[in-house]
Amino acid sequence: MDDRLIIAVDFGTTYSGIAYCFADQQNSSPIPIDNWPGANGIDVPKIPTVICYDKQNPQKFAWGGSVEPQADSISGFKLLLDPSQSRPDYVPGISIAKELQQLPKTPVQITADFIGAIHNHAIEEISKKFPKDYVQLCRKEYIFSVPAVWSDAAKHATLKAAEMAGLTPVQLIKEPEAAALWTTKKLDVALNSGDVFVVCDAGGGTVDLVSYEVQTTNPKLQVKEVVPGTGGMAGSLHLNKRFESAIKELVGEDQWSSLRSSKGFQLASSLFEKEIKKGFKGDFDDDGFDDDDEFYVNFYPAKLADNPDRGLESNTWTMVREDLMNIFNPVIDDILKLVDDQVERVKVKMGGRSPKYIFLVGGFGSNRYLMKRIVNKYPNIEVLQPPDAWAAIAK
Ligand SMILES: Nc1ncnc2c1ncn2[C@@H]1O[C@H](COP(=O)(O)OP(=O)(O)OP(=O)(O)O)[C@@H](O)[C@H]1O
Ligand SMILES: [Mg+2]
C-alpha cells in the first residue's frame, strides 16, 4: 500500500504537540491531536514537555500532563540538546555540566523516551478515527520543527532521538517557517506579491525569526525566504528564572535555602507561570505608564520575615509594575534586539525597504507587553498576533 501518513511533531522546550494528515487525500489539512492524558478530558493542542522516571526502573516513566506537579520531574531538556547555544547572562545559575550530571539518562535518550511516548499516544488517537489496520499499513513520514538557530550538532541530536524512538524518515523544518505557513493561512491579511514579512516565534526556550517575500498569491500563496533564520535564547522560561532570583533577593540567602523547596514557593511559581506572567500588560501610553499592574504572591505556608520596604508582608509579596519590569525588560530588550537585527537584514536585502508585517507567534509571542514594545518601536510596520499562535507550529 502506498498511502502516506504525515506526522508533524512540535517538540518544544515547554510544550509539545503533534498534528497529522493523510497525504493523498484531497484538501487534507492537518489535524491536531487534542486528546492527551492528564488533561482531565479537556481538549488541548499541546502538553507540557516534562518526563518523570521511576526511581527503581528507568524504563518506566510518566510524561506530559500525567506528571504530578510536585514530582521529581525533568523539563527543559530540549535546550540541553544544544549546549553550544550561548545563554543570556541575565539567566542566573545555569550550569549545563551540572544539569547534565544530575540526569538519569542523556538528553538524547530522554528526548527519545518523550517523543516515543507522545508518538505512541498519537498513533492510538489516530487509530480511533481511522481503521487501525489502515493506520498501521500507511507509510509514515515525520516532520520535526527545530529552532532556526539550532546548530548542526543539535539537529543531529534531534534526528538521533527520533530514530531511537523509531520515527523515520524525518524531515526537519525550521520552527518559524512552520509558524509562517500556518499564520499566513489563518490571518485575515491581504498579502500581495512583493510583500515582505518577518515571523517572530517567541516560545519557552528560544526566539526564532525568519523573513519571507510573497512570490504569488494565486492560486496558492507562495513565499520565498529573504533572510535566513536568526534568533537566540530569549524564551519565556527566562522570565521564570528571573522571577526565582527576584524572590531570592527579596527574602535573602538564608530564608531562600528553605523556601526554594517548599510548597509555598511551588505555588508562587505556578501563580507566576499561569497568571502573572501572562497577565502582565506593562501598560503604557504616550505619556508614560499606568499604575494599576499589581500582583499578590502568597508564600503560605512559609513563614517569612516581613520586608515592608519591598512589599513583603504577612508572607505576601505585592509585586508592583516595577518589579515586573525588572523581570521582563532584559528579556524583552533581547527580543527587540533580535527583531531589529532581522528587520535590518531585510532592509539590506530589499534595498532599504522595511518589512510590511511582523507576525508574532508562539506562547511568549502572545504576550501583550512584548507586543506593545514591538509596536512602539516600529510605528511603520504592522505587528500582528494571530489568535491561536501558541499551537501553530505543529499544524
Ligand atoms: N502571555 C504570555 N506571556 C509570556 N509567556 C507566555 C504567555 N503565554 C504563554 N507563555 C509561555 O510560552 C511558553 C510556551 O510557548 P511555546 O509553546 O510557543 O513554547 P515551546 O514550543 O515550548 O518552546 P520553544 O519553541 O522555545 O522550544 C511557556 O513558557 C509559557 O509560559
Ligand atoms: Mg515552539
TrEMBL record:
<keyword id="KW-0067">ATP-binding</keyword>
<dbReference type="Pfam" id="PF00012">
    <property type="entry name" value="HSP70"/>
</dbReference>
<dbReference type="GO" id="GO:0140662">
    <property type="term" value="F:ATP-dependent protein folding chaperone"/>
</dbReference>
<dbReference type="InterPro" id="IPR013126">
    <property type="entry name" value="Hsp_70_fam"/>
</dbReference>
<protein>
    <recommendedName>
        <fullName>Hsp70-like protein</fullName>
    </recommendedName>
</protein>
<dbReference type="InterPro" id="IPR043129">
    <property type="entry name" value="ATPase_NBD"/>
</dbReference>
<keyword id="KW-0547">Nucleotide-binding</keyword>
<dbReference type="GO" id="GO:0005524">
    <property type="term" value="F:ATP binding"/>
</dbReference>
